[in-house]
Amino acid sequence: MNKYSKTYKFTDINYAVADKEEQEKMFLDYGSILNLFDCEAFPKITIINRRLNKVDFQNKVKMQVGNDSLTKYRKEFNDMITKNAIEAQGIIQEKLLTIAVDKKKVEDAVNYFNRTETEISNGFLKLDSKLTELDINERLRIFYDFFRVGEEDLYNFDMKASMQKGHNFKDYICPDTFEFRTDYFKMGDRYGRVLFIKEFATFLKDDVISELTELNKNMMLSIDLNPVSKEEAMKLAENIRMGVETNIARWQKSQNENNNFSAEIPYEMQRQREESKEFLNDLVMRDQRMFYATITIVHTADTKEELDNDTDTLKSIAGKHLCQLGKFNYQQLDALNTVMPYGIRKVKVKRTLTTESLSAFMPMKVQEVQDTNGIYYGKNVISKNMILINRHELLNGNSFILGVSR
Fold it and tell me: pLDDT tens across 353-382, in order?
């Protein structure tokens, strides 16, 4: 079997600022998207934080100065933008969906993607999010920007030209050196570490992912999913419930043999009975799907000390939500290959979640408005990033300004 994958970029939505009723609708719509993935697919949702680099700043934010009567005003605008960019977070956040499938032939993979792509895209449209397929150069640019921080303005890779020369694309995007230690790695002059959520809270809030990705650092968070068929999920749920009932029956038998006929079932066993019953009801009565999920985070820093401090910060954020982050010891290479949006999972850490519990790891937060050649209008109150609007790209470019006269 061969593995094929596609990566799509999806736009964010204003989930964090919506009222409770709207959030509930978005939550259910996101759950409906998760239910669209069949057991053939291996979807991965990735959130990438990267600093605004020189190329993005020059091409997307600054005005071309030119040489006319308006030059001095463009320079003044660029100076203002530069000042505000320093004060702002300076982080660009991208959200990706990578879908991988195991197929014998490339034709089978193409047919699969053609069959499912429209349905998934319509699911995102219901969320007011747009799904856009990335080509090979756009996908490679993601890896290049991660592995070669500070060299983003040098990217000019051409896949066809590379193939004609017989070059391997990996040589272009990978860092010059890689060193993997016990619980961190070093790529070039930068340090990195991959973490994973190893313990989930009994009750999950829907802002866990958004708070973990608020860190003003270069980082990447991925949620690897392995959908389970309805039949297999039902069988597993019934086996779990049967195991719990068997343990309770053995405990009661032991108490009866000791003539302790009035002993109450321990709280832990009662909780396991209720949870197994609720899990089975979710699958049967509430149209919930079952998933194996793996949540991994990679973050990088300039020094080992900074890396350790960032790790402690991430652990503190997770702890606030009663989740526990762990380090991958002696597995940093496999973990790095897992968190990157290649479409593969190299680590065996996984947790069983239903559609509803998985939806609690909501990747949506707030819509960013950063149009190419846009004019600076202020800062996003949630993300603290700059708002750049190009009114020529709007359906209606008219506007009015309210303010106090001087």
Answer: 889 889 999 999 888 777 766 777 777 777
Residues 199 and 295: beta-carbon distance below 8 Å: no
Report the greatest alpha carbon distance in the chain: 99
Residue 171 phi/psi, 5° resolution?
-65, -25
**Interior CA angle at 343 toward 341 and 349, to 5°?**
95
pTM here? Answer: 0.85
CA dihedral 181, 182, 184, 190 (to 10 degrees): -20
Phi, psi of 186 (to 5 degrees): -130, 125
The DSSP-derived string for 371-400 is -TTPEEEEE-TTT-PEEEE-GGGSSS----
Other CB atoms within 10 Å distance of the CB of residue 199: 12
DSSP state of 206: T
Query: CA torsion angle for 27, 229, 248, 250 (degrees, to 10)?
Result: -160
User: Residue 224, SS3?
Assistant: strand
CA 201-207-209 angle, to 5 degrees, is 80
